[in-house]
Structures are given as structure tokens and as C-alpha cells.
């Protein structure tokens, strides 16, 4: 169990309800269920959050995800911050923040993949490790970077059928705002660089985690 709080034996139905509320963005129901379960099991709310893992086997539709994965994937910063506040420990970040699902993806991977910058920032500030690689060998910055490739390819396909769009894009290329995906990449690489410099002032400059530009067809939106 990836939690600094003792694990609680929650029923399948209780876990399913918690996951559903976190997934669809029902903050009120999530707060109510966590409070009721905390009272029922006479334990801190952090123990309930840390025990609500989708532990079903992948072959049976299980994801291995924790409650943090769902708001991170959906960009629900309100629910994500609520859960992070419950898990907050000034002495040591909760291991749940870096919990890996069946595909090896952490909540940060899912937030980065879907280019949810505010969720990425919240997770990083809470202690998420930007260097963790998923089952396909990719870190969060790589997934955000790859999302940018897909967006750029779609834009290119659209512009091929519109001379006007092509002309507009060409004339505004220099002033084009940075995409959400690249904002996420920049955030993660900046945090990684600053962290490395703080840990070792004598270390050489960060190489951006060695992100190469190869395309991998593995399905990581799991």
C-alpha cells in the first residue's frame, strides 16, 4: 500500500464509489464518503484515500489507479487539491502521489498526457517525482511532448485543406502562443533542472532527461 497511513480494508463497493466520485468530479459525494468511511473505520481521512486503489487485475478491467489519477487525468484541480490536502505531510510527501497504475503511469503521467498544467503544478509541488518512467519507459514530460506532436499533426492536416488557414498560420507563426503541451513540458523540465541544481551544485546542467524524439506506439492512456 502506497501510503504513510495504515491501510484500511475497504469493501469493493466503497472503493468503487470513491473512484466514481473522483472520476466524474463529484466533490460533495467524495467528501461525504471519505468522512463517513473515516468515522466507520476510526482512522484518518488519509488512510481512506490511500486505501482506495483499483486493485482488480488488468485482465478484468482493473486500472491499478489511485484516487489521484482521476482528477489528474480529467483536469479537475478542485478535487485534486482536496485529495492532496488530505495527504499533505510536511515531514514526508505521501508515497501515494507517485503511485503507479498497472501501466506504470503515475497521476503526474496522466496529468501531463492530457496537458493539464494546473494539475501538473499541484502534483509537482506536492512532491511528485518528475523522473519516474512508466511501463513503456517514458516520463511525464515525454508524454506531454508526444501530445504536442499529435496536436501539430492534426493542425497540419486541417491546414492542407485550407489556403486561408495556411496563410494565416504562416503570417502569425512568430507570435503563436506556446501550446498547453509545451507549457507542461517546460514546467516539468524547469522543475527537474531546479531540483537537480539544488541537490548538487556541482552537477552539470540538466539535459532535459534525455528526451529523444522517437515515436512509440504503445498505448499509455491507461
From TrEMBL:
<keyword id="KW-0677">Repeat</keyword>
<feature type="region of interest" description="Disordered">
    <location>
        <begin position="193"/>
        <end position="222"/>
    </location>
</feature>
<dbReference type="InterPro" id="IPR036770">
    <property type="entry name" value="Ankyrin_rpt-contain_sf"/>
</dbReference>
<feature type="repeat" description="ANK">
    <location>
        <begin position="103"/>
        <end position="135"/>
    </location>
</feature>
<protein>
    <submittedName>
        <fullName>Ankyrin repeat protein</fullName>
    </submittedName>
</protein>
<dbReference type="InterPro" id="IPR002110">
    <property type="entry name" value="Ankyrin_rpt"/>
</dbReference>
<feature type="compositionally biased region" description="Acidic residues">
    <location>
        <begin position="154"/>
        <end position="163"/>
    </location>
</feature>
<keyword id="KW-0040">ANK repeat</keyword>
<feature type="region of interest" description="Disordered">
    <location>
        <begin position="152"/>
        <end position="176"/>
    </location>
</feature>
<dbReference type="Pfam" id="PF12796">
    <property type="entry name" value="Ank_2"/>
</dbReference>
